[in-house]
User: What shape does this take?
Amino acid sequence: MPKRHLITCALPYANGPIHIGHIAGCFLPSDIHNRFLRMKGKDVLFVCGTDEHGVPITLKAKNEGKTPQQVVDENHIIIAKGLKDFGIHFDTFSRTTNALHHETAQAFFKNLYDKGVFTEDVTEQFYDEEAKQFLADRYITGTCPNCGYDNAYGDQCEKCGRASSPSELLKPRSALTGNSPILKETKNWYLPLDKLQDEFLNEWVESRKSSWKSSVYGQCYSWLKEGLKPRAMTRDLDWGVPVPVKDAEGKVMYVWFDAPIGYITATKEAAGADWEKWWMDPETELTHFLGKDNIVFHTIIFPAMLHAHGDFIVPTNVPANEFLNLEGDKISTSRNHAIWLHEYVEDFPGKTDELRYALNSILPETKDADFTWKDFQAKVNNELVAILGNFVNRVMVLTDKYYDGVVPLGSNTLDFTGSKVKIDEALAGFNQRQGLEYYMEIARSGNKYLQDTEPWKLVKDEANSQVVADCLFTCINVVKEIGNYAQIFLPETANKILGLLNLTSYQEEIKVGHKLNKPSLLFEKIEDELIAIQMEKLQKPKAQEVISVAEEKTVAAVKSEIVYDDFAKLDIRVATIVAAEKVKKADRLLHITLDLGWETRSVVSGIAAHFSPEDIVGQQVTYLANLAPRTLKGIESSGMILMAEDADGKLKFVSPADHTAPGSSIA
Assistant: This one.
């Protein structure tokens, strides 16, 4: 058994916020594993941080008129706050632009350099003559030689997942200017992956076959079977960790060389002088949590680096998850088809556990999964509210009613040892969806026991007093079990239950005569109004593009390319608001009547928090006229008013500069 457990979560890329795809891919699974091990009394260190170097950062900075440091500073704050607000607490959340990280990465590189691990090679690299700059892998796009995708990157095809090099792309083009690059000589330092494959990777990956997910092993096997090639670990850039060797001026480390070393930096920050035991003691178990698009870097390149260095352990497991889709479509940051973590926390205050539960129940552990707002609503209302929350509330209310909130003299008649063993086994095997199902079995069993016993009926006869006392004593202990394991799955709920039970720790025993606190609800139903607003956000075009790591380590902050025929399908008109009123029992919705010149239309829009009905009558708006109608709060909403949203979340109408006849087309 390992003495300690080091858990890493893939570093989010600091060119934008994070969305629920990232949460389901690695953040929530790693947090669950961390909480599970700590509850079992294990010695655990849980680290992460933002990945802040690389080409996409420089491109975003250029597009926004900022420095790369400004871009990463802004996004580090957004990402760190969102994760903290969501209840994911790392021992440290570091940054790869920190001075300590530069020092750590340079020392690692120098170790390999001094040992003669790298090979130096002068090769012809792509060069943009107009930009007067060598092009790093992500500055180059072209056609994937494997699947034919036209916008593959120089280091990996996002469509088929195949790792590649720029020279393999068909019809390569510069991401800076769009021009066809030329080849120009430059010197770089290469990690000999072909040599490391023979001396280490083949045998090591094969030794993990039985313990790794089949999807992870399968990817590794495929790459190894094809045969690895030396890969440049340096780039001709000015944003990154400078290469600390002679004749390397103007060069930085390949972002996928320095980024995983960020785990080591974060460990140094968290553990101080004791950091080495977490990385150099073979009795430490290292587990990397990540999405499937990062498998190659954590199972091939980083282990090869660690082995070549010689002093470090290599990962024990890499339980990578598949992708999460949204409403039946791929999450797309360029189209703003995403649910951003920081926006969810703002829109659903105090409801982090609700999203944790919904995502945990569909984690894409072995295949892609799909998140829908309706499913989210159903899981909250039909499971958290109706099963778990309902059971806890009934127990607390009945105890308060019959015993004035004091634990009665009774005996425990239910044993959940079997359920707890199943939860532990599932979580130890990274089957976290299954673990959640076993957890909910405790609440379901408690509900059934309470319903079958019916203490509200038995209490009418004094002869049944002991049965009633046994029932509620048992149910109070079931509530404690639910709260105890909620520390893993639903941490805010665990705190609430601890408060209801009037305990300071789940290690305390529920004793006869213990005074409970007054009942209060753990969850509340998610109303249709809230779901309608979220659906409208997904459908509404956004004026401001948001870029993030999962999909946008790309060319520029522009939406996906379309053809004219796609645009021509949209019937966009000028309309005038002639009436507006708030929708009853829907604080955020306005019922708006629009004049289109030849007829009026009715629209329900989630803008009540931004505008008063009386202030917008007479306002001219831009209106998508041929969007299929849908019913909200019993009102048919035809089409959509298009809005612009600034960086502060303030909505503005998109209107013609001068008064324009209602019904005028926009083309």
